[in-house]
Amino acid sequence: MPFWMLKAGMQHVIGRLPNSYWWNGLFQKYITRGYYPSRETFQGKLNYCRQHLEHYHKFSSAPKAEFTAFELGTGAWPIVPLGIYLCGASEIWTYDLVPVLRRDNLKRTIELFDEFFHTGELKRILPNLKTKRFFRLKELMDRVENESPDQILKTLNIKAKIGDARNTTIPEKSVDLIFSTVVFEHIDKKILSGLLDEFKRIASTNSVMTHYIGLADQYASFDKSITPLNFLKYNECWWRLFNNPVIPQSRLRITDYRQLFNARGWEIVEERNTVGSPDDLDKIRLAPEFTQYKKEDLLILFSWLVARPI
Fold it and tell me: How far apart are CA 229 and CA 219, in angstroms?
């Protein structure tokens, strides 16, 4: 049996446990060894942060030096929101459905920021870095053991919330930058529609929305026997058996995202795509759900979508 199917089976077992996200963290920590970010992973997250910021300054009609920001998908490692803070955000909301951020996560994140600051890499990747803000962040290291992560982040005016981001309590037209990093691909179409409506409500007049979306089969990242397009050969019935119930893959294609953005009042002002191999697509027989898509759209593995409210 292929390794990815074994992992799928394990994820279904984990998905039936209480506090499945906690058990999934243990699985990543001790089995797949993908829990703690490497220096390369941390650098990658900083590059995402830089690009979110570049999109804001490029596409906002009136970018601010001190802006407000909203992140969908806090996750276990608050690297991007802390990077946004270090580059001038005055207030940041970050939403997730489950509380996976822990003290050891935050401590290691601050340690990595410190390492990259002293090598000069942090300033190189984030040229708008505010040095005083970095030292303020570093000072919080001593408090990590005694205070919760959300209390620590609140000190920096980063408000970590657990709940449905379709119904935030954020005031209307108060957020300048709305962003997410490899989150949209885990959300189904109906829920995404509601999220885009809420983002439209909280977006300021000159706001920019920027999302980095993964459209590839994530099982292919650790099982090299399959291609990044492997999941396109399974119909919906079969895919329910294989899909990760803890962190599901929606399999929405770029066409679906374009239509969703437009339908919910967002104009895409930039789209940058990473394209897969046509040979990988030719090797599989598409499930009926994907036969109506253009080949060039099916080949897209990752996409940056930048939009403004219409």
Answer: 10
pTM of the predicted model as reported, rounded to 2 decimal places: 0.93
Dihedral, CA of residue 189, residue 195, residue 197 and residue 199, to nearest 10 = -140
Domains by residue range for the chain, with CATH: 36-215+252-309 (3.40.50.150)
159-213 residue pLDDT tens: 999 999 999 999 999 999 999 999 999 999 999 999 999 999 999 999 999 999 9
Find the mean pLDDT for residues 107-133: 97
| 53 alpha-carbon distance from chain centroid | 15
Check if the beta carbon of residue 152 is closer than 8 Å to that of residue 16: no
Amino acid at 199: F
Query: 71: part of which helix (H) or strand (E)?
Result: strand 68-72
8 Å CB contact between 32 and 222? yes
- Residue in 70, 89, 86, 239 with CA at minimum distance from that of residue 168: 70
Share of the chain above pLDDT 90, in %: 84
Query: What is the C-alpha to C-alpha distance for residues 117 and 262, in angstroms, rounded to an integer?
Result: 40
Residue 286: count other Cβ atoms within 10 Å of its Cβ. 17
Q: Does the pLDDT value for residue 22 go beyond 60? A: no
> Can you state the angle between helices 131-139 and 79-86, rounded to 10 degrees?
130
Residue 15 has pLDDT above 90, yes or no: no
Q: Quick one: how far is CA 4 from the chain centroid?
A: 22
